[in-house]
Design goal:
alpha+beta, 4 strands, Nucleotidyltransferase, domain 5, RNA-DNA hybrid ribonuclease activity
Length: 111
């Protein structure tokens, strides 16, 4: 399951203004699941038309690859290249790696 939280960047506390939980297809491995989740997060956010979006995730390899300008030829490369292509449609965004402990509240909300 993919958890998306939309926070109000104008709010000093960064309160969540909207959230969504999306079911994902079964993936062959954790890296593929994380790549699909990243793609779905970008795809879903494109539809919201927010002016500035921060993407956070605890999969360091995925977050790093979304920032990279290099083409990825790994097994998850095509998925991440699609996500990067969609990111180019956004006016302003940021990619952050968050330690797994930092995602604890998000995971607990939907557990």
């Amino acid at each position: 399951m993919l958890l998306l939280f939309f926070r109000n960047s104008n709010d000093i506390d960064g309160r969540i203004v909207e959230s969504a939980a999306l079911k994902l297809p079964i993936a062959a491995n954790a890296a593929t699941a994380e790549a699909i989740a990243a793609f779905k997060a970008v795809e879903t956010t494109i539809d919201t038309r927010f002016s500035y979006v921060i993407f956070e995730g605890d999969a360091r390899v995925i977050m790093k690859e979304l920032i990279s300008k290099e083409e990825d030829f790994s097994e998850i490369g095509q998925i991440l290249d699609k996500a990067k292509s969609l990111l180019q449609q956004m006016a302003k965004f940021r990619i952050n790696h968050t330690r797994r402990e930092g995602n604890k509240a998000a995971h607990e909300q939907y557990s």
